[in-house]
Amino acid sequence: MTPVLELKDVALRHRGSAANVVEDVSLTVETGHSLALVGESGAGKTTLLRLLLGLSRPTAGRVRFDGADLSPRDRRQLRSFRSSVQCVFQDPYSSLDPRRRVGAIVAEPLRSLGIDSRAGAAPKAAAALERVGLPADAADRYPHEFSGGQRQR
Predict the structure, then answer these.
(1) Residue 64's beta-bridge partner residues?
(2) What pTM was computed for the model?
(3) Do 11 and 58 form a contact (C-beta atoms < 8 A)?
(4) Residues 6+ apart with CB under 8 A from 67
(5) Domains in the chain, please, with CATH?
(6) Residue 22 CB: number of other CB atoms within 10 A?
(7) DSSP 63
(8) What residues have CB less than 8 Å from 76, skipping those under 6 apart?
(9) Phi then psi for 24, rounded to 5 degrees?
(10) pLDDT, tens digit (0-9, with 9 covering 90-100), for 23-52
């Protein structure tokens, strides 16, 4: 089976720097699986995330999505890519808009990527919230009404 996302012998060096920020990194993410990046401050987690999300281009190696090299210039591929991956940030207190209900926050990618309408996205968001163990009324609540663990889910 082809991995949905793959880094192969990736390195990144910032302009004007003699040393690589990350070097010789390889990893794969299979369909339906998750990946967690854990490490000390300055270990390169954010740099790897930027590479995985297609926000930075490696100076060596390859970033592949569904078996094809990820190309920031290929709009169709990027659209498919962005509808297939999600990033969950570490800080649950600053990653959710406090002025919006949780259901609207969860449904936003479905609407913004054109996957579903507002009416169609709402029940899908509610189902997703239930799948991660949140109560039935979670979609109608605001982020400040949840614990830190609930916000991360």
Answers:
(1) 6, 69
(2) 0.62
(3) yes
(4) 2, 3
(5) 5-73 (3.40.50.300), 102-152 (no CATH)
(6) 20
(7) E
(8) none
(9) 55, 50
(10) 999 999 888 888 788 888 888 888 888 888
